[in-house]
Amino acid sequence: xxxxxxxxxxxxxxxxxxxxxxxxxxxxxxxxxxxxxxxxxxxxxxxxxxxxxxxxxxxxxxxxxxxxxxxxxxxxxxxxxxxxxxxxxxxxxxxxxxxxxxxxxxxxxxxxxxxxxxxxxxxxxxxxxxxxxxxxxxxxxxxxxxxxxxxxxxxxxxxxxxxxxxxxxxxxxxxxxxxxxxxxxxxxxxxxxxxxxxxxx
Length: 201
Known about the structure:
Elements: H1 4-15, E1 17-18, H2 20-27, H3 31-43, E2 47-53, E3 62-67, H4 69-72, H5 76-90, H6 93-108, H7 118-131, E4 136-139, E5 146-149, H8 155-158, H9 163-176, E6 180-188, E7 194-200
Antiparallel strand pairs: 1-3, 2-3, 4-5, 5-7, 6-7
């Protein structure tokens, strides 16, 4: 079953532009839910305000939303989703864990033996994660440091492929030469933005 966000993106792909009311009616979702998903997609650079539609009433003009040029140029989410579906059908749960571990290693790239300092390792990991559009940062805590991802590059297919969260934990662990455990998945942080959080031990 497709997520609301995927259905919203597909609707905008076919109709080019739509208002919150139109999206809500078509997807049978409340206006508040549509606004929530649109605000996330705007932050991710997938959706943008493309025009304002004059209202018949005296209210403010309705915003019309469309996909950004970047979102319209490819079908990478569709391809990645199909590949992951195919791989999970061909292999069992163990194969999936091994596969995610290999993918994480490939994403890390060449490991630099470099500095031993955990602070410097965090600096390098954040740098690499942000090259991959994670909007990452880290915080020191009494029990263990936390790594926060302010953006999920796989949000469009995450509903069907939660194994990507496991891959992120493996990716972070490999970068920091530690183990990483996810403690929050797309939960609202202090500023109200969705984020993922990992404890690094």
